Amino acid sequence: MSTKIHIGFLIYPGVTQLDATGPAQILSLVPGAKIHMIWKELEPVSTDAGFSINPTDDFATCPDLDVICVPGGTGQRPMMADEEFLAFLTRQGTGARYVTSVCSGSLLLGAAGLLKGYKSACHWAYRDLLPMFGAEPVAERIVRDRNRITGGGVTAGIDFGLTLAAELAGEETAKQIQLFVEYDPAPPFDVGSPERAGPQLTESVRSMLAAAG
């Protein structure tokens, strides 16, 4: 591995920004880390939050990555059939030290053939799609299977980032980063999973997700 740790987030139109920017913020604090936001071209990429992210690299100029991370988002579906996108992901994933995702980004790893025979996390609403790609769905916030590290829905990206930081730089460094960003979650409502939310709220959120695409 090079002196720098090249960590790449493969973004696309309709990406969920927190899936990418949350762990990117955490991992930017790992000593030697170089964060790459990657898309086909160096044009602003619209997110599903209504603002854009400026890529730092395109497919042609991106270096070989030590870590590749695929975030989820409402724009994920067309990417699952995008040959150029999947070819880049497969190439980088084959050589990366860690192949990772947040939220429904694990479905893109699956579409690129990178999860066959691996356990994986995913957003709860899409977890049952993982077997289509030969992956074993696991209802946990973070799932580690060999060099695959996958996070559950959106906010799991912070936990994912800290988990990966510990892998790259050691547990003590990851603890320092956690305190540095004051990550001490205490959500105002105890409804962060379908099991705790109950069927009525869960179905209403399923409808929201369906409407979002």
Give an account of the 3D structure.
- The protein is α/β, with parallel strands linked by helices.
- The chain has one domain: Rossmann fold.
- It contains eight helices and eleven strands.
- The chain has helices at 17-27, 76-79, 83-95, 105-111, 156-169, 171-180, 194-197, 199-212; strands spanning 5-10, 33-39, 45-46, 52-53, 57-58, 67-70, 98-102, 119-120, 136-137, 142-145, 148-151.
- Strands 5-2-1-6-7-11-10 form a seven-stranded mixed sheet, with helices on both faces. Strands 3-4 form a two-stranded antiparallel sheet.
- Helix 1 packs parallel to helix 5 and helix 5 crosses helix 6.
- The longest helix has 14 residues, at 156-169.
- The protein is globular and about 50 Å long.
- The model has no long low-confidence stretch (mean pLDDT 97).
What's the layout of helices and strands?
Blueprint: E1 5-10, H1 17-27, E2 33-39, E3 45-46, E4 52-53, E5 57-58, E6 67-70, H2 76-79, H3 83-95, E7 98-102, H4 105-111, E8 119-120, E9 136-137, E10 142-145, E11 148-151, H5 156-169, H6 171-180, H7 194-197, H8 199-212
Parallel strand pairs: 1-2, 1-6, 2-5, 6-7, 7-11, 8-9
Antiparallel strand pairs: 3-4, 10-11
Helix pairs in contact: 1-5, 5-6
